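Following up on my earlier thread - several people asked me to post the actual chain instead of describing it. Fair enough. Here it is, all 611 residues.
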Amino acid sequence: MRQLVIYGVVLAGVLFFEVMRWLDPERRADALAGWFFGRDADFGPWLILLLLAPIVWNLRWRVPGRTLLPVVRGWMTEPHGEANASRWATGLRAAGLTVLVAVVAFASSRAVDAAFGDLPPAYHDEFSYLFQAKTFLAGRVSYPSFEPRPELFDQVHVLNEGRFASRYFPGVGLWIAPFLALGDPQLGHAIAHAMTALLLFWIGRDLAGNGVGLLVGLLFAVSPGMLLFSNLLLAHHPTLVGLALFLFAFLRMRRTLRFRWGLLAGIGLTYAMLCRPMTAAGFGLPFGLWFAWWWMRGGQGEQHRPLVGRSLLALSMAIPLIAGFIGLFAYSKAITGSALVTPYQLYTDVYTPRHVYGFNNVERGEQKLGPKVLENYDRWAENLTPGLAAKNVGVRLRESLRWTLGIVPLVLAAGVLLLSARSCGSTDWRLIAAAILTLHVAHIPYWFEGIMGWHYVLESAPLWILLFAEASRRLVRSWRDDRPWMPLWWGGVIATALALDLLTVTPLWPGRLPVGIAEVSYPRGKYARFYEGVATRVGNGPAVVFVEADPADRHMDYVVNDPSLDGPVLYARYRPEEMDLDEVRELFPDREAWLYRAAGEELIRLPASGN
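Reply from S.P.:
Thanks for posting it. Predicted structure:
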């Protein structure tokens, strides 16, 4: 009966949205002349599969290969099943599945990297993280600003107030640095993708056996959003490594109450905090609340511990967090002069005050405008109201479902877990579901919905995949005896989701991952053309290119330099309303000078110094 309710609600929703699409003249014309199921294909293909479900439900024919199912089922339920396999055999199978998941994840990420070729990064943030990694490789946390005119080298997301440093927290730069030294910074993110996938396999295995772990690991490995972001030099994949380590160790600590797992959980959460503090806080909040409740109550049965034991376990997680905060305070002190003012905060105050966290951000920011505000970029911010916040939450939820696996399969999974929570739910699964909620809540007070509509809540993706895998296990178990063909139908659900995510089928739908690759390739291509044009005309320098920004395109910014400012070609920010070109050109007597007007893509050679 519960499954019928879920089926009916989802079918009604799919029918509603499909009817609305066909009633809309613009989308109907697009379907008939272009993509039949729409550019997002959120519902149309699912209607066919859902209408097939009643037919498959009533099939009673014997499933081919059924004699092998008990053996496979035994393997997939290890270590929770009733199989009598030796510990050695069980461990060998787990090791083999771990390697399989890691290899698939790494190879998939590198395949997407190959699609981008040698194109430079796409987002301002990526250049800032590379700036940070280069600074760390030089054995420093910052460089001095260019003393004669610091504002010439104002770079988006780079602090330039006496100290020249990335605004971001140090965890990501530390991750990228060794791979940058090897000449392939993207390799680090592919490894992070593989590490997260194998940790998810072990989380799923610990919770419900090899089958759930394998499904979680493989679905994460080929999730379109995860693959795309594993090829952006952003904070998310290093953060995911820390959060996955935290989740793996915390859940083991919950079961065993051992010091070593608490220590490892603290290390994982601390590293995530050093990459994305708000994300780490939002992700970890439900687990912290559970631990605080357990510490105060003392636990029951096997989870009972005396106060000293509970406090030691709390200390195991606190030690890495305290060390992380001390390191963060020292890092901030070295760059901003105050342990309590982070580079991120100072950058926002000085350059983009309208982007401040919280409601009425624009109104509050305009009360603090200073002479160094990046006016064009800063005015991009919208004033956050309850209405805009509610809209952002909806967009982030929708896009996170789309980019993780798909709206329909994840809604089906959520329905299954919700209606079976009382009969077969566990605290572990409730904490995982709660972490999705708190991650969204933590980002409500920010005006921007996020890159591709969801990057602020990207770390919810592995949690959704965990829930989907557990819902799959519960469904297959309930169908095993009476509905022998329904597990194959559910396999069709997974296959359909992956087809919509990874493949473009003309003229039915464009694959979500190919669309994402094309979207990211556009700014990467523009940067590549710019740098190729400079290399062709300017050569290897020494030269300085004064860049006059295009006010109509705030998202392309060509002022990107090494932190040491000693590269063969420097890119300086030229503000014609504030600067005299001849005057600033004199600051670089040993360099050939050029002017680039981004609006018209003009590269103009300037007269030699003194002429």
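The two ends are 87 Å apart (CA to CA). That should answer part of your original question.
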